[in-house]
Design goal:
Blueprint lengths: L5 E3 L19 E3 L4 H16 L3 H16 L2 H10 L9 E3 L2 E3 L3 E3 L10 H6 L4 E7 L12 E4 L4 E4 L8 H18 L6 E5 L10 H12 L5 E5 L14 H16 L11 E5 L5 H14 L2 E4 L18 E4 L3 H15 L5 E4 L5 H9 L4 E4 L1 H6 L3 H10 L10 E2 L5
Parallel strand pairs: 3-16, 5-6, 5-15, 6-9, 9-10, 10-11, 11-12, 12-14, 14-15
Antiparallel strand pairs: 1-2, 3-4, 7-8, 8-13
Helix pairs in contact: 5-6, 6-7, 7-8, 8-9, 10-12
Length: about 400
């Protein structure tokens, strides 16, 4: 009897060159074609995708993911092939169970369109967004740029998204499907920001309104005041603004009827381009009014990365790793051992993941690593991470309650 025939799924990373460490076609779909035809199809698709820009390739991959996740047998196969191997260093934080500490960062699934697919690949949690109160197109294209030799991206997307109402509707549909199928859904965080035309005085009300729409369907909310691609957004990290935003969201939380379990934490995502004094001020406000912090967003710094000097926007991937980890380690010293921190920035391997956890993260996230690593990225990172043993287990349980 012949072995089951497979066809290859071409992910977002298929547009990158052959020097990458992992094949962009390591995700097999059972029963689709014979081996020669598979090879021919992949060669053709690869040539086509190499002609696309990074954002167009992302959109094409996301469309495929959305279609596949709506096929129950396909989703079950994904979960069996990937998610069944994803229980590595499980942990409990904010009254939520995480089967592993690795999540997909905000930016990949801006509109809650492929949550089920990402979950089936084995991520321990999914962060949707950034979502703004009103839909907006973001900055002009092109606005994502690849640097595969450096395992880096620069983006200046500008919070392009469908708006809070559309995302909330999609998430409500997701929960209805999960309930009908009786499947496991890892925690979902929603990253919220402000529209480009919203000034600093109007920002707190905009954040609150966005929260009230999407929060009922989320396990937690990440307040994004650190993207470099929205004018004036990073100014909201200043204590006077941050305190006002968090105060309004906290009050809104007490009035929200949630459809999800857990303590519904409010987290603050910060920039890496901050001084020690600024980090100390933000940490003090967060300790008082938030339930955790995410460190860090992308950087505007191009030191050591001359390839990106002529492109504006936030730099992510390997060049961000050292600085984001420094910020994470400093934050852990500021907030103490019991305050939850999510480490993000430059995680491409299990070794990177272990270093983030050892620097003080309770959970970790990746975006660029997934772009370059493909569908097997979470499985590969978690497999390597499991070899680090007790070094990654110290922050596996945090019982801090929202204040």
């Amino acid at each position: 009897m012949h072995a089951p025939c497979t066809a290859r799924f071409v992910g977002q990373n298929a547009v990158h060159n052959d020097s990458l460490r992992q094949s962009p076609t390591d995700f097999a779909v059972p029963g689709a074609c014979n081996a020669p035809l598979r090879s021919t199809m992949y060669s053709l698709l690869k040539k086509i995708l190499f002609l696309l820009g990074a954002e167009e390739a992302h959109d094409l991959a996301a469309e495929q993911m959305a279609r596949l996740q709506n096929i129950p047998s396909m989703l079950a196969w994904l979960e069996n092939h990937y998610a069944s191997r994803a229980t590595v260093s499980p942990r409990s934080i904010w009254g939520l169970h995480f089967r592993n500490p690795l999540g997909i960062a905000a930016g990949f699934d801006k509109n809650a369109e492929v949550v089920s697919f990402l979950s089936a690949l084995g991520f321990g949690f999914v962060e949707v967004g950034t979502v703004t109160l009103h839909a907006q197109k973001g900055n002009p294209k092109p606005r994502i740029f690849r640097f595969p030799q450096k395992r880096a991206l620069i983006n200046r997307l500008g919070f392009n998204n469908d708006g809070a109402t559309a995302v909330a509707s999609r998430m409500q549909g997701l929960w209805n499907t999960v309930k009908q199928r009786g499947t496991f859904q890892p925690p979902i965080l929603v990253n919220i920001g402000k529209n480009m035309d919203v000034g600093p005085d109007e920002a707190p009300a905009a954040f609150e309104a966005c929260f009230r729409i999407v929060a009922p369907f989320a396990h937690g909310i990440v307040v994004n005041v650190s993207s470099p691609n929205t004018p004036g957004l990073r100014d909201l990290q200043a204590p006077v603004h941050l305190r006002n935003i968090l105060g309004r969201i906290r009050r809104a939380r007490t009035e929200t009827e949630f459809l999800t379990p857990g303590n519904h934490p409010i987290l603050v995502k910060i920039a890496p381009d901050l001084s020690s004094e600024q980090l100390s001020d933000i940490a003090a406000v967060s300790l008082e009014l938030a339930d955790g912090m995410v460190a860090t967003n992308t950087t505007l710094d191009r030191v050591g990365f001359p390839e990106g000097e002529n492109q504006t926007g936030g730099l992510s991937g390997a060049p961000l790793f050292e600085r984001s980890t420094q910020v994470l380690r400093f934050l852990r010293q500021l907030v103490g051992p019991a305050y939850p921190l999510i480490g993000v920035g430059g995680i491409l391997t299990g070794r990177d993941a272990a270093e983030k956890l050892e620097a003080g993260a309770n959970l970790i996230q990746s975006y660029t690593g997934f772009v370059y690593g493909g569908p097997s990225f979470p499985r590969n990172v978690l497999s390597e991470l499991s070899g680090h043993g007790q070094a990654i287990l110290g922050a596996s349980t945090v019982n801090r309650q929202p204040s």
